[in-house]
Amino acid sequence: MTRNTDDKIKELATLFLSLNDQQQQEALSLLRTLSFAESATTNPAQKECTSA
User: Mind listing the pLDDT tens digit for each residue in 1-52?
Assistant: First the structure.
């Protein structure tokens, strides 16, 4: 990873830790939803290969 990416990850981690428990759960739920949406819409050929 680049230094800029590392800085962004540290900033995100700091922000996440500043949230209360409920906000952290909501943030994790949102990240899971975004991850699923990304995996469902990217590289359909790879998706077909892994489901076979």
Answer: 678 999 999 999 999 999 999 999 999 999 899 987 788 777 655 555 555 4
Run of H or E including 1:
none
Token output for 28: 């994790």
Per-residue tokens: 4: 């800029």
3-class DSSP state of 43: coil
The single-letter DSSP state of residue 20 is -
| Predicted model pTM | 0.57
